Amino acid sequence: MHLIPRPARLTTTPGTWQLTENTGLIADPAAGGAAELLRELVGRPAGSKLAPAAEPGPDTIRLRVDPALADEEYRLSVSTEGVVITGGRRGLPLAVQTLRQLLPAEIFATGPAGGAAWTVPYVEIEDAPRFGWRGVMLDVARHWYPVAFLHRMVDLAALHKLNVVHLHLTDDQGWRMEIDRYPRLTEVGAWRAESMLGHYSEGRYDGVPHGGFYTKSELRDLVAHARTRGITIVPEIDMPGHMRAAIAAYPELGDDPERALPVATAWGVHEQVLKMSEETIAFCRHVLEEVLEVFPSEWIHIGGDECPKREWEESAWTQARLRELGLSDAHALQSWFIGRMADFLAERGRRLIGWDEILQGGLAPGATVMSWQGEQGGIDAARAGHDAVMCPHTHTYFDFYQAEPDGEPLAIGGLTTLEHVYAYRPVPAGLEAEAAGHVLGTQGQLWSEYLPTSAHVEYMAFPRLCALAEVAWGTAGEYAGFTERLLAHRRRLDHLGVAYRR
Questions:
Q1: How far apart are CA 103 and CA 211, in angstroms?
Q2: E-state strands within 19-99
């Protein structure tokens, strides 16, 4: 079976089952969402309405919710008795994706399939993921992508049984989420004068304005679309660094309110950071309030990475603020700020997650660390009793080259091959069992400075995201076996029109 990710347990017996236009569907009341997903992804391409059936039989698919199973666990049986799918609350959508992969690859075609025989081998699958966080991060701040592409990324993530799409919505080079209370964030902050050409060191620009943003309505629709596929959208509003676009819109947020700054056009880290006044704290809270209205995710990402301290260290106002708060230095000031945001989110039943720099100056109670500068940040967090998502740049940064640069599109640098991704294991060697229990999982990062189009995003994401999906599922084994299955999986990607690296 050429399934990606590979199931935990799979056995086959001789024989096949056929999906026909007369195949019926029986679904528990609690399985209504999975039934609609099955009709959309399996029934519609096969020309079957999957109409409700009166009772189980050889030509039926049955969906059942079993509260005794774990949330994302499922069982899939294909036999002379038809198809029976049993799962936990979020296990049924995962099983639908498995059944979809068991069918001929032509079912993934967006056009007429040409009369393919929709047969499925007799199989028994018992499956559940090892990790609860299996994600992909898309940076829409450096380059804006059409909202239809965000829906497509959700669909592609779901196909590979990922369950988190992390949207990096703001940065120095663009603010992408509509905030009613602060309209200039999108009127000004969503647009920059030009973008860089070539590598950063070349200092060249294209002279072409770039921008765009997503309305709350568009983002709510995206959240609803993702929910049907068992995916959580985790929003990121980066603070207190990477806020140049917000400061361009509202200069009073910065250290010098009289200084007019444009939205950044250069990549990299910019010195301008938020002024740590109570007015700025109120701004951040107001923004997050509107974020919470749109995104029901338990986790809210506040970035916290790459926050230069020079402005704070050279500012007489900030130094006085440190003394007022009884803080020792700028690192302690950032920790104080992160703590304020963590408290704000906790009061509303949410959890703060940030990049591993939030460890600097002390980690806020309840905060989750996303470890990108290697694994040490995640290890330190886990040993301190905090949850961690392991996404070291060495294995999970998909803006890095996939092969030697000659013959590859321009990338930020680095080299992360498919084999290197597949070799990654999210729980660091030597981590004690209790601490290892705090490793939630892993995700791939698609930073978009060098990904100007959606097709380029797909090229850099796939097939590496296929490999990471199996790593996150917990069934990664021999690389040769994975690549053999990937050869067959490529036909599915071909039918979907994915611009993957061949």
A1: 41
A2: 24-27, 60-65, 74-79, 82-87
Helix (H) or strand (E) holding 482: helix 479-496
Alpha helices in 233-299 (DSSP H): 244-249, 278-294
Does the annotation count 270 as an active-site position?
A: no
Instruction: Select from 293, 147, 158, 297 the least CA-distant residue to 228.
Output: 158
Cα dihedral 336/347/138/290 (nearest 10): -110
Q: Give me the pLDDT at residue 259, please.
A: 86
Model confidence over 358-387: pLDDT tens digits?
999 999 999 999 999 999 999 999 999 999
370 C-beta neighbours (distance < 10 Å), count: 33
CA quadruple 437, 438, 440, 441: dihedral, nearest 10: -70
Q: How far apart are CA 174 and CA 166, in angstroms?
A: 17
In three-state secondary structure terms, 46 is helix
The yes-or-no answer on residue 242 being catalytic is: yes
Give the span between the Cα atoms of 28 and 51, in whole angstroms: 14
Which residue, 73, 113, 78, 72, is CA-closest to 99? 78
Q: Which of 72, 171, 236, 387 is catalytic?
A: 171
Catalytic-role residue among 59, 126, 221, 306: 306
Low-confidence ranges of the chain (pLDDT < 50): none
Please give the pLDDT value at position 111: 62
Q: What is the rounded distance in angstroms from the CA atom of residue 283 to the CA atom of residue 247?
A: 11
Does pTM surpass 0.85? yes
* Catalytic, out of 143, 168, 242, 301: 242
